[in-house]
Amino acid sequence: MDRLATTDDDLNAWVDGQMPAERRASFEQTLARDPALAARVLELQRQNAWLRSALDPVLHEPLPQSLVDAARPPAKRAQSRPWLTAMVASAAMLVVGAVSGWYARDAVLERSGTPTTFARQAALTHALYAADANRPVEVWATEEKRLVTWLTKRLGFPVHAPDLNSAGYALVGGRLVAGNEQPTALFMYENAAKNRLTLQARKQPAGAQETAFRYAIEDGVGVYYWIDDQCGYALSGTLDRTQLLAIGRLVYAQLAVAEATTK
Amino acid sequence: MNGILLTAAPARFAGRIAMNADAPLPHPDLLAAIPRLRRYARVLTGDASRADDLVQETLARGWEKRRLWAAGTDLRAWLFTIMHNVFVNQRAAAVREAQNVSLDGDGESGAAWQLPVRAPQQTHVELIEVLRELSRLPPDQREVLMLAAVEEMRYEEIAAVLSIPVGTVMSRLSRAREKLRRTVNDTAAESVPPLKIVR
Fold first, then answer.
1. Is this complex scored with an ipTM above 0.85?
2. Segments of chain B scoring below 50 in pLDDT
3. Cβ–Cβ of A257/B6 closer than 8 Å?
4. Do B7 and A61 touch (CB under 8 A)?
5. Residue B179 belongs to what domain range?
């Protein structure tokens, strides 16, 4: 290698062990012939060694409990699993609900005093409105802008209606629905076969910790739900899991983009 | 309708989600990454307790954003990226706050920086000296030097972690090393046994 061609980048790459193999041989030849260059390399190696010896002790310090805790999955951190009991309760409610209808659900809820799970609530709401032939939504897609503005105002955070046309689903419209703890925005979609999907969004009640992408089947309705940035989302429909997940991904990606652009 | 409807989601984004729809972060790997995160945070903030706060915030963000981590890729690099972003945001907020109450100073903490570690057993003057010099580097250069020399990350990885071009990584690295070189040379000279060129 030409002495003049040796750059700082070469020195750095050599010292950091990142020089491409094909340059190494010629660099080493230059190094052997050039004491000044060798001295610089030595300095940089010494510098690296000092930095590491000075800072390595941090690696061996005992970890504070707060950090050990922070490394745990958030769901496990929130002690036991109250949702598991809730799920069992929901399964029981399914039977009751199917027989006695909507009011029995309220009665069960009142008796148990436990709020129903987000997924279950989403599935019930989906079943209620998706089956409605004439008035599934309160505001139709022709007034989408007004719909979104209204829901944004009522929910207190920016709501977006994702475009699911690429998956064959067109927006029908939306409405505001009563949630257990929080008002919920509902967007309904429909494909050519009149199959309907709903996307529901709400602000997460304080203390809700589960954030993973989860799937549940409630009353024959599949629900993908997740929490992102303090907001809970549930996509419900009678599709199979794979199809629903594919659309869930589409929704998630679009919301993430929307979130990033509105911030 | 326009502005609200976003049609095409970036394929890269969707792909990552596809891989992680249900997968949590690997807990053992996360735990194993903490000491390195702490060390890096210590150098970024120059303060042990602020450093641990930064690590805690980084882990919390990691869990929040876990679906964005592509399983099988380097978890450590991903966490360093998060930490860099959190740190940059905090610093920007601190600068804004400082301006609001019109404090003097440029917002950069040359003076407030403490030595990140207790002096090691064999208290080398040079080690203290090198840390002092490290603390005097502009944060941009300090970060690059830490990631290259101490964390031994690939330059391309560093570029990704800091969201800068590889060329910028290289120039910051050269400048950082040059500044450190002068001091270290002055202090060191003959007191250290010559290191072999190992390769």
1. no
2. 1-22, 102-112, 116, 119-120, 190-199
3. yes
4. no
5. 118-189
